[in-house]
Amino acid sequence: MGDYFFILEHISFTIYTSIKELPESWNTIAHDNAFLQTPYLSVLEESAPVNMQCFYIAIYENQQHIGVALAQYIQSQHLESFGDRDKCFRTAIRNIILRNFASNVLFIGNNMITGQNAYAFNKPLEFSCISELLQQCADTLITYFKKQKINIHIVTFKDFYEACSSELKKHQFKNIFEFNVQPNMIFDLSPEWKNKEDYIAAFSKKYRDQYKRSHKKFDGIITKELTLEEILQHENRIHDLYHYVAKNAPFNTFFLAKHHFSTFKKQCGDKFKLVGYFLDEKLVGFHTLLLNGDLLETYFLGYDDHIQKENMLYLNMLYNMTEYGIEHQFKKIIFGRTALEIKSSIGAKPVLMSGFIYHRNKIINRFIDKIFARLEPKVAWQQRHPFKE
Asked: Is the pTM of this model over 0.85?
């Protein structure tokens, strides 16, 4: 797209639409976050949802490459469904509003995952600079789309942990509506746990019994990490299982392409794990993981709903992901925003994350807090405490 000068500490940025154009130093800057490195970004480029376009932002100080960032444009009018689980009048009204007043959305960050994955720098920057820079990137992309006769309705900056959001609010984000949706469920693994036996021993009796009960229900199901060739072999079934879960979520802004998981495996190799669950040699579920330094990132999954209910498949997936994290000595497992209560029952805890959002229609934006409160699905849940005190 070209170079853009940003008048603050001699900062400039270039926005790219292709991975091939990125500077060679990109992965050095993004070293600590696999979700900003080119193998993952290539997954987005090759298999992004049909309603999504990605932009890759290189940030410079005095022409020295110091930062990277990601932006995504989503067209909701191309989406088959916003989520079919909750069929009610409020949901119908929500969908009408989204299609007519929020069909063109610009994200600074990654709308597909949970976590602070919008940007990375190789040196400390003042939050006054970061907040101004992120807003300038958004303004530049708004102008880019305007030239294509596309009107961006909503701009969202996503996701920030509490310490970061507090700093951003002191500067350019102070007049932008801050929203908090469901928390990110994060499991801080005890360094004393070396295997699953240590993990199970830490449970109170109630949750140790839950573990045993779920494993009895799991009897007969075989788990296997799939190679690229096996993922390709089962690609249609994998997509069907994923699509069932995604479509029955309370809210969606995208659906993955059919070849997304095979592309992920091809680009990221051993850093990406897809584990299949087989019953009578038929694939009935799968979960995916991304190895991100000392973080284990859970990604999308899918299952046969009948098997899930009869065999407690989802709970067993959570245990299996946790046991993988323990056995390979990860510090944390990032479980994301869904199924909060069951994730807390295996040891994950809620961590508040914030985003910032504004509507470019000034009248609508005056009421963005009230509108957002009505559109965001509410989830009532009870946090569980599974370990002995």
From this structure: yes
